Amino acid sequence: MSILVGLIPAIGWGLMPLLTSKAGGRESNQIVGTGLGAVAVGIIATVVTQTHLSLNFAIYAFICGALWTIGQIGQFVSFNRIGLTVTAPLSSALQLVGNSILGVLFFSQWQGPKHLMIGFGALLLVVIGVVLTSKVDPNKLGAQKGNAVTVKDFMFLLATTIGYWIYSSFPSMPMVQGASSTELFLPEVLGILFGGLVYSIFTKNAGVLTQKETWKSALGGLAWGVAGLAYIFSGQMNGTNMAFILTQLSVLISTLGGIVVMHETKTRYELRYTLIGLALLVIGSILTSFAN
Fold first, then answer.
1. Which pTM was predicted?
2. Cβ partners under 8 Å of residue 92, min gap 6
3. Which of 49, 60, 78, 134 has the fewest beta carbons closer than 10 A?
4. 70 contacts 195 by C-beta, under 8 angstroms
């Protein structure tokens, strides 16, 4: 039973980009829809668990959720630029590398030469894996190489991933020590919805809440919200390391789903390297948990 609970985050986070991409619309529709779905899960979870919300913790969690939208908007934009099958593993790797380095520098993780060697060796596997997933068939003609990652694409995704880094580091920050995960969940998802609405206004789509694509994207938000809630319980039932390991299957679901569901084409050459790269990425991600 505990393993099944642990698989829910991987399934939910893997399906979310597929559901929002299939919903169509602009990035503003996708991010606001995600926020709406996640808030619905947050309200239900708070009522069912009868969680008491502290104003101090809630403010920090709200800000953190709003910053998360920076990372997610970066993903949505990149889906359109370079495709889901390229964005998903690249974004996953950037999050893992960034979070790991922040953990070493600020949160006393990977202490000692042995743990540092395992950790950075694992990150090297992740980087190699991403390079392989991004390979373009050299036999393709110029116009067919549309999903090749440019420096501009990479730098954009890297810059927006900062929002994910802050969100992931948030539970370890001193200002929220003593708060339960369920206590932070609803304020976080409210922050996500707020961040999405602000983005919609700045991108001149103020009527986002009246557009059907937004409400279709809410399915992706429901998947994300259920996954986030399940991750809390998975950590309690399986331990933090095993809970994290199981979530790494999400990149397989979203990447392979991009090929099957979104019909993103890859040649036999590219598919071979994508599968090898995904295997290295997942193995490297799992190894980082043994460095702690």
1. 0.91
2. 248, 250, 251, 281, 285
3. 49
4. yes
